[in-house]
Structure formats: structure tokens, C-alpha cells
Amino acid sequence: MPTRDVISWNAMINACVCNKYHQVALELFWEMRWYERSGIDSTTLLIVVSALSKMNELKQGRIVHGLSLKDGMDSDCFLCNAFIDMYAKCGELSSAECMFEGMEFRDSSSWNSMMSGCVYNGYAEKCLSYFKDMTLSCGGVQADNLSISCTISACSSLGEIHCGQTIHGLAIKLGYGDTTHISVGNTLISLYSQCGEIVDAECVFRGLIHKDDVVSWNSMIHGLAIQSAILKAFSLLYEMQLTPSVHPDSVTFVSVIPLCAEFKLLYEGKSVHGFIIRRGMRLDLSLKNSIMDMYCKCNNHKPAELLFTATPGRDIVTWNTMIAGYAQNDCTIEAQTLFQEFLCSGPPCNALTLLAILSSCDSPKEFQFGKSIHSLQIKLGFLTNFLAINALMSMYINCGDLIASLTLLHSISTVADVVSWNTVIVGCAQNGFFYEALEAFNQMRSRPHIKADSITLVSILSACGDLQLISHGRILHGLALKTPMGSDVRVRNSLITMYSRIGDVDEAKSVFSTSPYRNLCSWNCMISGFAQNKNGRRALELFHNLAYVPNEFTIVSIISASTQIGSLRHGKQIHSYVLRYGFEGNLFILTTFVDFYSKCGRLDVAIQIFKDLREKSIASWNCMLSAYGFHGHGREAIKLFTELCESGARPTKSTFISLLSACSHSGLVEEGCLYYNLMSTVFGVEPTTEHHVCLVDLLGRAGRLAEAYKFIEGIQPQAELNVWGALLSACKYHGYVKMGEQVAEHIFKIDPENAGYYVSLFNIYAADGRWSDAMDVRRMFDNRMLRKTPGYSLIDVCTR
């Protein structure tokens, strides 16, 4: 153009802004300032401020603001509104407020800009305050659909359902309650769904006349997802696909995919991923990150790995998602390798990155790597971040360094919250440090500003159950009943488990019966409690009254109960149920069936189930080894152990207990001794009391009692009572009276209250005809008022 006036420049700058060429628009503006002698007008600045707001350019925004003041445009209401919006979107809410306060005249846009700025910067209370001031102002400004939408969003952020309902009523009064105002309807959907009022949210959504706005559908789907309404969310997504005027976008799937991740819905997650690919939708980074997270949380990290590799412009969330995914799927080496790659080539590390990688340090062998992460955390200045400190404490407990974890806790004890204390208490309880968990709980209780929550009680009750501390457990039960936690279903379930572990099944049943609400876990805890206390009959009776569809834990507990009472009939019925309802691929359940059939005399069925397993866990191998030993098939057990080693599985302590027991029941003395020696030297498994008992039993059955006695004397530290008990049984079997007397004397010094050992010594004397000595043992037995648990046999009356 030969001549350009202000209108020409404004048109060109506005065209650049409309087409998102913000930097070009800014360059044109400065060029205009240089060449255009007639100067600029308020329209020019209005367009430029709009561009700066979208570019988040605070520094240049201040310069433009200065120019407007210099040129005397500070009284232009439209321009002032633009500056308020620009400052708010650049995070300078205080400057926006100063601008707002300095305005001589304010229109509805001024108030709306200020309120939306407050919501944008997370100051929801200020938004409500400005809305109140606007409605009470003398300027005659009336709330419109935008101000109402902003205020409802503020209520949603604060979880203020009653305030939101009041604004809803005001909107109806002002004429914005009808279903044609989509922005108001969308914010109402978000408000009601986030506050748990799904019915009201659906009522607003169904009342919308125009359902061609994708935001409305996304708001409703997101609300259902927040409330974990899985079926409703997917039904609405299906309905959305059938609506011609609206199509799902990336925001829709960012709401649905996390739902698949949370509930491990791999099939549904794959279907959503496939739909996105079929529709040719652009996979933006947020959507890719959600899909990766879904695959990782569904224990299928390979597709996530492929997606990560194929993503060129990875942000910090992408790296964090993949590192956390590896850690969640026990891919420790991959997680740590990727973390090191991230430090070399990725964006700057944040606290969430450290949280992701620390979760991979969950065993003593990862201790050094965990310490290096601690050093990095100090270097990066994250020691004031409570989440990072809690993750460090958890890491040290999992790696076995309890002192380091407690030191960290004490370093922040003055400001530590209940989450920090729970981190230590839960970590101690899960890693076997039960006394330390109780000590940490007592210290927490001494802090008046810290109140135990349901998570605290669940962990402490678990520790009491494992330590058999009935008095402590009852005190905690009383504490729970004095607070609202007493009705918490998780606390109730923990009480059932605690009493069951201690052996007080009647009290456990009382807690179960008086619970105001019982979920499937409650039933599982009670059924398992009966099974653990050898009360299989009551477990079966409770199972018949089960109010829920059984899951794998229910089935395993009831199989265990059937095993106890030797009920092959009940076990077969449960097996049929498993096959009918699709549990036949569950390794956990099938392993339990191997144990059940072998103990009910059907070794052939147990072998067949074991052979048909698609994959075999170490528990499956151990169970089959135990089955062979139970039936006296020692050679087959040894052959199976060889297959186990060749398969790449790593033998455990339980593996060798089963193997040594099999050798003992089959008279394979030399083989048993060989495997006992190989256990520590080749396989790195240190012998425990159970292994010592098996070896003494092996030698005792073979009549090599002197060798067994010598072996016991060589155990360091001193042999446990059960080991001496195994030798005493061997003395009874072979009639070794003198050695039996020596062993019994030693046992009575350690545990004079065990009735079974008195009976064994009595039988040794009786078998040798020494009735006078036998009666002396009987008198000792009676004087201590001991009672031997009577034996019993079970028969299944209904065999057909």
C-alpha cells in the first residue's frame, strides 16, 4: 500500500492476532510506532494487549501499559479491561487489582475480567467477594452469564455446594437459568458433579436444549469420571458417538482414559485408544501421556514404552509417566536407566520425577541408588517438599534402613502432618517392623496437633494382630469407637482381621455382625478369619450367605476352609464355580486348588492342574513340591525341583522346606542332606528354624539320632524349641529313652507349659515299660493343669 493509515495498521495487526501470529503482530506494532506519524489509537493497543495476553508477555505488557498512560488513554474503559485481563493471565493479579481499583467507570466486562482473573489464578474466595461487591455496587452493573459462570466455577473450586446453589437460584431469577445459556449450564454441571451431586448435574445436562456443544458433554463425562461412575461415563460416551452434531475430542478422552487406569480396565482402555486411531484424531501430548499412564497402571507397560519411544517432543509429564510406569511394573532397572537418560537429555527435574523414581527403590539392593536420589533431592532444593520427604522415608524403610527414615521424620516432627507419620507407620507395619510402628504411633499421639486417621488405625491394628497384642488391640478398638473412624469400613475390616489373627474369632464375628456397612472385603476378612483359625465349617456357612459376587480372595479362603475339613465335595463345587465364572486363568486360585486336591487325596488332579498352568509362579512350584512330599513321592519332588531351577525361577525358603520335607517322608536321607547344604552355598538361601526341623526329622526318621543331636548342638544361635521337639519325636519313634530324657529336660527348661512334649515323654517311658517314670510325668502334667488338645477325624456324609 502506498499510504497506510491507522485503520490499515490495525486491520493488519488484528489479522495476525486472529490467525495466532502473535509475534508478527507485535513486530508490526513496533514498526507502526516508528513509521506512523499520526500515532496509535486505543483500538491498536486493545489488539496488541490481546496478543500479549495470549503470549503471556508480562514485560512487554508493562511497556504497552506505560505507552497508554503516556498517550492519555488511561480513561478508556475497554483498554483498561484488556489490561486487567492481560495482568491476570500473566499471573500478576495484584497489578490487575490495582488497575481495577483505579478505574473511574467500570462496566460488566471490568467486573468479569477481574472475577475470571481471580478464578484463573486460584483465588476463588476473591472471585466470590468481587461478585458480591458487583451486585451491591451503585453503578447499576447487573450480573450476566459470564459473571455467573465465573462465580459458579469459584464455588466449584471451593466445594461450596450451598453457595453454588444460591448463585444457581440467582441465575434463574435473572433469566440465565434456561437451557439456552450453555456456559452457565456447563459450569453448573461441573459444580454439581465435583460436589458429588451427580443427579443434579445430569438434570442440568439433560435440560440443555442445544447439545451440540462438546464442552457440555465433556463436563458431564468428566463429572461422572470424578465420581468413579464407570458405567454411566462409558454409556454417555457411547451416546455422544451416536449424536451427529457433536464428536468426542481429546478433552473427552483425557477424562475417560484415567478412569480406565484407575480401575485397571485394560480392554476398555485399548478400545478407546483404537477409537482415537481409527478416527484419525491428533494425539496431542496430554492425550499421549494419559494413554501411557493407563497402560502402565493396567500392568501392561510395553505399549506405553512404544508410545514413549515414538513421541518426539516429550515434556516433563511424559518422562515422569514412563519412569513411574516402569517402577509400578517392577521394572526397576528400566526405571533407573530411563531416569539417568532423563537427567542427561530431558527437561529440568521436578519433585514428581523424584517421587516416581524413589518408588523403584523398594528393596535393600536398591539402597545405594536410593541414597543417591536423596543427595540429588538435597542438591535440587526439594527438602522442603513434604511429598518428597515422605517418599524418602518410605524408600529407607523398604530398603531396611529404619534409622534413616526415623531421623528424617524427627527432622520435620515440628511441622510433620498426619501423612508423614502415616508414611512411617504404614512402612514399618508392611515391612515387619511392628514394634517400631507402635512406637511411632505413640510418638504421634503425643503431638496434640496431629490426629490419627483411618489409615493410621488400619496399620496399627495390623501390627497388633501380627504381634498377638490383644490388650493393645482392644484399646485401639475403644479409641476407634469414640471417634467417627469407628464406623469406617476399612477400620472395621482391620479389626476383624486383627481379632482373627489373635485367635478371638467370636470378637471378630461380633465386629462383623455389628458393622453398619459391609463390603466384599468385610466378608472376605471374616471368611478368611474362620479359615485361619481352623474353623472351616463356619467359613463355609458364612460363604453360603455371602451378599456379594465372590472375587479371587473369597474363593481362595473358601478353598482353604474346604481343605481343612477335607471336603472334596465342597471343593469340587467351588472348582465348578471358578470354571463357570471365568476364574480358570487365575494363577492364585489354581495354585490353591493344587494344594486342596493333594491334601484331599487326589494327587492326580493336582498334578494335572499344575501341568495345565499357563505360567507358574514360585508359589505354584512350592505347592506342587509340598504335594509330592505329602504323598511320599520324594523322587518326583526332586525331579520337579530340577525343572524349577531350569525354568529360571529362583527357589525360596519355602521351596527348600517343601523339598526337605519330601525327602524326609520318602527316606531320601543323603539327597536331603545334600540339598540342605546346597541351599546356602549355591542358592543363597540361609537356613531357618523350619529347615532345621526338616533336617532333624529327616535324620530322626532314618534312625540317625546321634547325628541329629550333634547337628542341633552345632546350630548358632541356639536351636529353637521346635527343632528339639522334632528330635524328641524321633526318640519316641525309635525308643531312644536316654536321649529322649535329655531332650525333654532341655525342652522343659525352655517351655514347661507345652502339653505335647509331656505326652511324648510319657509315651517313651510307657513303650519301654518304665511305668513309674511315666506316672511321674503324668503327675507333672496334672500339677501344671495342662490339657492336651483332643484329636478328631472328619468324614463327608454326602459323598454323592
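Second entry:
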Amino acid sequence: MKNAYYELVGIEPKLIEYPGSVSDGTIHLPSAKTRHWKGGDTAIQEEILHTLVGTVYCYDFQIDQPTQIHFEIKTPFVQLYHMMNIKGKGTLTQRSNAQTFPLLDGRGVYLYTPTDRFTLHLERGHYLIYGFCFHPDILFAADSGEPEFIRPLLDAFHRQLPHLVASIDFKAGLQTHEKHVELYDMLLQGKVCKALCILHILQALFDLSIRKMRHVYEQHHPNRMLVDSARDMIINHFQTKEDDITLTEISGKLKCAPNYLNKLHIVHYGTNLNTFRKEVRLNKAKTLLPNNKILYVALTCGFKDQGSFCRFFKRETGYTAQTYQKNK
């Protein structure tokens, strides 16, 4: 099933693609293209509706044994990700940097999703996921005064960052479900074009989610200075020293718990603090590589040896340190 944003490219253990419906659940998206897979008591149903303003997708996973579903992201985008019914343990993992996002029952989140391979790891259970993939300019004009807690997503999209960035997660309950039902009814009636249907519901869901996220953000806003102090500490460390710094060391200096500091960073910047630390460390390496030997860069950036640095660089950038050095 191909569309402008992503493609489901593999399932492990391998399932047979099934010609008819394998789910009698709640996914019935009018006009969508549908695929089904089945093996034993495991069944997967995918429905995708692609239009000029974005893509709506629905997935129903009935999982009887640990299963991995692989997706290839073909172009960066922002998605509104609704985890409507998560009855099992599941995570979304990005291949290049092993970043993991947990599936949370009855929650929604905005995700900036970069070009890469992603894998859904699902334990035994039932998972029902709805989503909208869209270009952020559809909802967020450059001068619209978007909420501060949305800006990390927009910054990630416009800078084409290589890692996943998430918004504050919010409750996706009855009101959210009703908006999905409204979309399906509009599509079924066919009185409005598909693109306008999606845009109408996307705007309504955005307004609903912003109200929910604002409440969480305002609760944590007084601690923004703590998060920025941690970021400044990381930047200053890599500018002035030749070793690494850990989240435990940072939180110890700021006299707070590591998990709490990390949670605050996710609220305000959309990623965990370790992702920011790796980004600063990588930027230092990129600055040094053109005019220095790789071993020197490795030791100056706090790596124990050249091999561990080269593995880090390849994992984070997709190409080797030697290639980067030659092209600069």
C-alpha cells in the first residue's frame, strides 16, 4: 500500500496477505484502500485514505504472539496519532537511533516523523490506532502565533531533524472518537470532497487537543528555567571539556530526579534530554571533523576510542565519519 508519506514494508513473523476482511472491529473508513494479513490468531487490517491535504490511516492489530511491523517513511511529516484502544504492550522504535515511543491506551500525540525505518513492536493483545499525516503548514501558518508547546514539532520539521519529536500527549476519549465517526459519516455521504472532510476534522481535532495540551503545559511551565539550565549545561560542557556528561550528573547538579528532568524536557522540547545531548555532541564532531584526525575528534568528544565514535556517527547521520570528512 503506497502513499506519499509512508509504506508498510514488512511483518515479522511473516503473515499471509489475505484477500478479504480479517477484522469485524470499528475500522471502516469509506473510500479507503485496504490490506489485510492473517496467520493463526494474529490478524492485521490497514486502511489508508490519501488526499491532497493529507492521509488518514486506521490500523487494527489482533496480535497472538510478539510481532514486529516495519514502516518506511519516505518524506518527513507531522502526524496526529490516536491510540484509541491499546490492550497490550507496544512501542514504536526508530531504526537509526533506537529512539522508542510507547503506545499509551486512550492517548493522542503529535509526532514529527523523519525519513527513516520505524518498527511497531507489539506483544499479545489488541491495538486500534487512528492517524492523520499532514504538512504542518496546513494547520500552522508561519505568522499564526502557534502555541509554544507546538514549536518543537515545527522546528524539527523545518530543520528536517533526523529523530522523532513528540508533543505533550493528551487524552483521546469520547470526543475524539466522535470526531472520527463524523469524518466517516461525511465520507460515506460524499457531499463534501475527501480533502475538505479531512481538513475539517483535522482542524476540529487540533482545537480539541490544543486545549488538553495547554492544561498540561501550564502545569509544567514554571519549571521551564530548570530545563533550559540543563540544556545550557550540556552545551557548555561540550564546548569546554573533552569528556561525556550523563543525565544523572546533570540532574544531580540541578538537584532534581533524572526522570523528572527528562519528563520536563519532553514537555517543552518534544524529545528526551539524552537526544538533545547526542545532538550537541554530534554537532561538535561535525565541526571538528573537516580539519582533524578522526581519533582526535573521537577523544575530544568524549568517546573512549575511534570505533565507538564511528559507530555513533554512522548511526546518527547514516554515513561514515570518513565520508563526511572527505566531502567537507
